[in-house]
């Protein structure tokens, strides 16, 4: 059998043929998935508040995705995580015993006032709350704090212990900074991964890249975690009475009091402690976190339209 030359002659135009009888449909059996985790429940006695600037938290907690292949986020190195402590504000010293117990987001203070009226804000910090808790357990009334002959020393001891707790927390954050970038192979101090996994599980709209703030960028460069005003980041501290404290009045052993220290992202302000008695304890009293209004990311601006 012989064929004529297949080249088109003069005046012949190429055609794009369609054979509908060969059409096929392919439906994937494997759906795209995201690996997320639920926000852990926290069993605490009370909740205390610090206000922090949203832009600062976005500067510190960052991540980067690999756009060079089609691997999933849980692959070991496709997503890299950063904790950039060189961007942590110098005034961001968060002594947990100086967190606020009278903020609108605070929960379950021992007391907010007495017969003389509402306590002033600089007497409504965690350290004051815990001293009232001890009085309640020892004297069956929180107003028994005035019976302590060393109330000031108790508060300063709490301030010093709180400063040590912040040094430990800050140390963990700086350790994470020293391990930049971390991947899904890294379990310890991988704080940005924890944030991203909780976003994936609880608010996936933030993973839809668009022009608004608070969603991810359509790039493979290092970028801010999509945090917005009104988000909170929490950790727990446990305060314990001094050994043998219950023997003062012969009551049963005094249980621990646990506090959720909740960092509220936005443009709020914090209470500055003013009851320092020991001039050598200045570093223990650096509790305020300066918040610059106008540098926030609003939740309304952070959502794509639906």
What are its keywords?
three-stranded antiparallel beta sheet, 8 strands, 306 residues, three-stranded mixed beta sheet, disordered C terminus, alpha+beta
What does the main sheet amount to?
A: 3 strands, mixed
Secondary-structure element order, as H and E?
EHEEEEHHHEEE
Into which percentage range does the β-strand content fall? 5-15%
Which runs of at least 5 residues are low in confidence (pLDDT < 50)? 68-73, 279-306
Structural class: alpha+beta
Task: Please indicate the count of domains.
Answer: 1
What is the terminal-to-terminal distance?
64 Å
Helix content bin = 10-25%
Rg, alpha carbons: 28 Å
Strand order of the largest sheet: 1-8-7
Number of strands: 8
Shape: elongated
Topology:
Elements: E1 46-53, H1 54-60, E2 61-65, E3 79-83, E4 113-114, E5 117-118, H2 126-139, H3 151-178, H4 191-202, E6 223-224, E7 232-239, E8 257-266
Parallel strand pairs: 1-8
Antiparallel strand pairs: 2-3, 2-6, 4-5, 7-8
